[in-house]
Amino acid sequence: ATNAATSDTSNAAFTISAAPVNSVTVVTPNGGENWQIGSSQIISWTTSGSIANVKIELSRTGVAGPYEMLFPSTPNDSSEGWTVTGGATTNAFVRISDATNAATSDTSNAAFTISAAPPGPSITVTMPNGGEVWRLWTVQTIWWTSSGISGNVKIRLSRDGGASYRAIINSTPNTGSAQWLVSGTTSSQCRVQVVSEDGTVRDASDNNFSIIP
To answer: Could you tell me the domains of the chain?
Structure first.
């Protein structure tokens, strides 16, 4: 038998609330950013509820997609590093969703830009570039263009079609031209090579030229 007279109640009111609703909010990129291809960027977000892992996707053609997969499932720790890949676009959107429930998702509020990486340093030999005939003991001008090169350049000569090179000017200012007193042995398979001071950037004549007596 029971005795309803023997009872107790809570000393104060307590609340019964609805279970938190799962949600995702993209923080960055959220519109207006310009991310260069090859750069390291951080995709960040916030969530509510109970989401263990998130899926991160990218559209390059607007909010409607299609979306390509960046991370199929990554821990819900509010950020993920990404090395930006091509192609370039001015209409990129990121979409982040619960990895187990695609209906719980959010996208960037507005488009951001993925831009081409800046060109790397370069050297281009413009003369001699093939077909020239230089006589021994004449002064000739070697011409080149460059971009992103600091310091001096070295100029080398091949007499075997580019198989091997030897320095003819060990160091000269990177002004786009240098004069050389033609010397050494004759050859119909000569090429000039211009090399950056640190040796990482170089270019050579596209075709053979001749050194004659």
So the answer is: 23-115 (2.60.40.10), 122-212 (2.60.40.10)
Q: What percent of the chain has pLDDT over 70?
A: 96
Mean pLDDT of 43-55: 97
- pLDDT at position 5 is 65
pLDDT above 80 (res 152) = yes
What per-residue confidence (pLDDT) applies to 141? 98
C-alpha–C-alpha distance, residues 100 and 182, integer Å: 73
Contacts of 76 (CB under 8 A, 6+ apart): 47, 51, 52, 53, 54
- Residue with structure tokens 């390059």? 60
* CA gap 52, 102 in Å, rounded: 13
Question: What number is the average pLDDT over the span 70-84?
Answer: 98
CA 61 from chain centre, in angstroms, equals 20
Task: Give the pLDDT of residue 2.
Answer: 59
How is residue 209 written in tokens?
């030229």
